[in-house]
Amino acid sequence: MGNVISLSCVLCGKLYEESPGLYACLACGDLATLRVSYDYESVTIGRESLASQPLSDQWRYLPLLPLRNRKVSIPLRIGGTPLYPAPRLRQALGLQHLWVKDDTSNPSGSLKDRASAVVILKGRELGYSEIATASTGNAGASLACLCASVGMRCHIFVPKSAPLPKLAQLLIFGANLLPVEGSYDDAFNLCTEACRELGWYNRNTGYNPYTVEGKKTVSMEISEQMGWEPPDTVIVPVGDGCILSGAWKGFFDLKGVGLISRLPRLVAAQAEGSQAIKQAFDGDGKIRPVQVNTLADSISVSLPRNGAMAVQDLRASGGMAVTVSDGEILEAMKLLGRSAGLFGEAAGVAALAALLKLRSRGDISSDERVVIIVTGSGLKDTGSALKSVTMPPPLPCSIEALRSRELH
Ligand SMILES: Cc1ncc(COP(=O)(O)O)c(C=O)c1O
Ligand SMILES: [Zn+2]
Prior knowledge:
By secondary structure, this protein is α/β, with parallel strands linked by helices. 36% of the residues lie in helices and 15% in strands. The chain has helices at 47-51, 87-93, 112-125, 138-150, 164-172, 184-198, 209-215, 217-225, 242-256, 276-282, 307-316, 326-340, 350-361, 382-385, 399-404; strands at 4-9, 15-16, 34-38, 83-84, 97-102, 130-134, 153-159, 176-180, 201-202, 233-237, 265-271, 320-324, 369-374.
């Protein structure tokens, strides 16, 4: 399959070749995700050829993606998102070298589009005509969006408590929406069973090995946008741990083909009320389910499906895991909005909340080169955003009323 050599189990190392219906390790079970490795010697990708094309989407890294077909047939722009220096945010944090990777500008408003695009193309290669995913909302909205653009049928299992704007997106895109009476973890299990029984391709985050492969383009872009000098530290919001592993894999593959010469450390930002990966990282590395309770719905995960890989990757990067409270997340949401003009959803700003905590603890120095990834748009959950601000009362429509109103 192109430049891919093998898929290997994160737990036992057993090697597999791609085949329809293969997701996790058959010996170790569904939590043992598979890593995709490439024959770097045979990959043709170089700085000059990349520099000759504008950084307009993620397909510039096709030689390092697990797709046989070199013609991409998704008519929406995936990736190619801005990396902002955010001068006022730098000032607020006392950091000289801070950048914000704004992945809210993907077609469905979240980083998930990077993975959905690769998985849809892979599903087609494998001969599937229908595709399904479990989702806290964003992965589903993303899959629905991109499936609509190519005319593929999709089925989305969400916890019935998912924020309404995300469900509205799904319905507008014409997906078969299945609001499950249960948690995200319940939706995940039902989706896996449904795919097995009904012959649909399964995009479940982490479980499908190509989700990490799609998400890795975010750090390839960061590296290229920084002139192939990767940052010292990248902070990533973490639920299932798939974005974190994707971010690591992007840097890892770029180093493999010689486009960068060193790897950054990663920081996992988890909600206090959903910290299975932090606990495994600080403990014996084994993922155990936790009780979840956070308003950051996109990172509210009891049993992270990509947890084992994420913990390995965090350790390999010399990184760490940080938890943030809902209050800290809401403060970060306001800070990002007011000092950078960017509106992230609660999960989407968890990396900034973690950065604030690390700065206050003295764990990040003022000259460190730091990137935070904003993973999802605030418009996807205005209910949470409204908890961090005060809605002013209506203003009588007169200049006198305006004069007597306290102006900010
Ligand atoms: C906006 C946003 N941020 C972060 C995450 C966490 O990603 P992962 O589950 O891969 O850790 C998600 C996942 O749904 C998300 O939608
Ligand atoms: Zn295994």
